[in-house]
Design a protein that fits this description.
Peptidase_S9_cat, two-stranded antiparallel sheet, 13 helices, AB_hydrolase_fold, 514 residues, 41% helix, alpha/beta, membrane, hydrolase
Length: 514
């Protein structure tokens, strides 16, 4: 709670100043981020009564990135199940199986990406895999203990293990042939469950990461900005440092989770799938990291496949990953079905990587925890000082004028410093939070000139003026004849202190860098 307080205070105050973000193609399976979901509460909990099959799964109109809920086809049987997740939480799901199967079938539990999503989100995948001859369990994700600011991959893994037990107990399912599938955030969760449970026969991941969540997320937002034509200090300094602050303040869950030891502990055969046009997970860097971890653990039974024309979730995309269509990429479900049948029949694969090379325009960069002087508490303290100096100076002048005690300012540059310093600080934070909220694959930085958004260029110009005004104010103060009233001395001391601190602060956030 002590770590969460400074970043929460900073964020909530600035978010009230933000304009409403434009509609984007963000999806619940995107990795965790500070997004518009800050302003919304979860719609349901995993302990609520499960939605029923039938009319509630009828097709509805939706956007391309919000796939329609689907009716269960007549050749599949839907069975409602309940099971116990981590901490004794009641979980609810649906098992889809082919009608009229003659033998016990392999089974697969689907683990959601980020967001407190319902089973209907993955119903398209569940139907496609069931049509491949699998019994598939898809369940409502927990919301108890899961939020934008807090979640536990370990807890989610235990939920998935509970689902494995429920599916293994279903009639018509071969309990020795039940595995797990994880998408995006589920690509961190599913390997953890596989490493813990010998009841899991295989592991399938889609859009998975072997790198730390914070590193992945900063890459995704930076990639979206670069796609919009942005370069320079906004990406190299401002965006990275904002995420450092968010993570240090406890507002980014599991920021430094290292998946590699967990992946190295996986002994089951692994199928890893990545879309060539993945804009949310670095698709060039993660597969080799994943493979290296498996090999370090002695696991040579893995198959990696890249799909052309596929996005982060292996859905079709018409515009290189920006828009997600409802349809799975052709060949994806077929590959999962045939691979699962092979590995559950004892035909373990040797190392095999196939498909066209993925596209990744820029590399990810490590995002280390901030030094003490750049921590969330230090940033909050700086904001308090800026408020005292930049707001306090004109406020006290206004109070004096209302009381009829106005006096000529020691320097008119002080007024300029107060105005430009406050504008640069509030404007830069508001703009950065806006970019994070609308970031990812549909970044909306506004008009861009020479790699810099015009808004950012304007804020940089204001910051330069604030620095010059600081120097001019300091010089005027030095030349002011004594005596100076104590209240005036206090005002100027606060203002000059804020202006002096503003210089290294602006360098840290990239306002004074190209």
């Amino acid at each position: 709670m002590r770590r969460l307080l400074p970043a929460t205070t900073l964020a909530i105050g600035l978010l009230t100043l933000l304009p409403a973000p434009p509609a984007t193609a963000s999806t619940p399976d995107a990795p965790p981020s500070l997004s518009a979901s800050l302003l919304t509460a979860p719609a349901s909990t995993a302990g609520d009564p499960p939605p029923q099959a039938g009319p509630l799964l009828s097709p509805t109109v939706s956007t391309a990135d919000d796939p329609p809920t689907l009716a269960v086809p007549s050749d599949l049987r839907a069975t409602e199940v309940s099971f116990t997740g981590a901490g004794g939480l009641a979980m609810h799901g649906t098992v889809l199986s082919p009608v009229g199967a003659k033998t016990a079938l392999p089974g697969m539990v689907l683990v959601h990406g980020a967001g407190a999503t319902l089973r209907t989100k993955l119903m398209g995948e569940a139907i496609a895999f069931a049509h491949q001859g699998l019994s598939v369990l898809v369940y409502d994700k927990r919301t108890l203990g899961y939020s934008l600011f807090h979640r536990s991959y370990s807890q989610l893994a235990d939920d998935a293990i509970g689902g494995i037990a429920a599916l293994r107990a279903q009639p018509g399912v071969d309990p020795a042939k039940v595995g797990i599938w994880g998408l995006s955030e589920g690509g961190w969760v599913a390997p953890m469950a596989a490493a813990r449970s010998k009841d899991i026969a295989f592991l399938v991941t889609v859009g998975a990461n072997a790198m730390q969540p914070l590193r992945q997320q900063t890459w995704a937002v930076a990639a979206g900005l670069r796609k919009a034509g942005v370069s320079g200090s906004l990406i190299d300094h401002a965006e990275l440092n904002l995420y450092r602050t968010i993570a240090d303040g406890g507002m980014f869950p599991e920021p430094y989770y290292d998946a590699r030891p967990t992946i190295a502990a996986v002994r089951q055969p692994v199928l890893g799938i990545w879309g060539v046009d993945d804009l949310l997970t670095p698709p060039v860097e993660n597969p080799p990291m994943f493979a290296k971890a498996l090999q370090q653990g002695g696991n040579e039974h893995y198959t990696f496949r890249y799909f052309a024309g596929a996005d982060h979730a292996a859905h079709r995309t018409p515009d290189r990953g920006v828009t997600r269509l409802p349809e799975l990429i052709p060949g994806y479900a077929d590959l999962v079905g045939s691979w699962v049948k092979d590995v559950t029949s004892g035909k373990y694969p040797t190392v095999r990587v196939s498909g066209p090379p993925p596209v990744q325009v820029s590399p990810s960069v490590p995002v280390d925890p901030p030094a003490w002087w750049a921590s969330a508490w230090a940033q909050l303290a700086a904001l308090v000082l800026f408020a005292a100096g930049f707001i306090g100076y004109p406020l006290t002048a206004l109070v004096r004028r209302l009381r009829g005690r106005g006096r000529a300012p020691v320097s008119r540059a002080a007024r300029l410093l107060s105005a430009t310093g406050l504008t640069a600080v509030l404007g830069s934070f508001c703009y950065m939070f806006y970019l994070v909220m609308t970031g990812g694959k549909l970044a909306a930085p506004g008009p861009v000139l020479a790699g810099r958004p015009l808004i950012w260029l304007a804020l940089q110009a204001v910051a330069v003026v604030a620095v010059l005004a600081t120097a001019r104010t300091a010089l005027s103060w030095h030349r002011t004849p004594s005596p100076v009233p104590p209240t005036e001395r206090t005002r100027f001391t606060l203002l000059l202190t804020a202006g002096t601190l503003f210089i290294p602060w602006s360098l840290y956030w990239g306002l004074l860098l190209p």
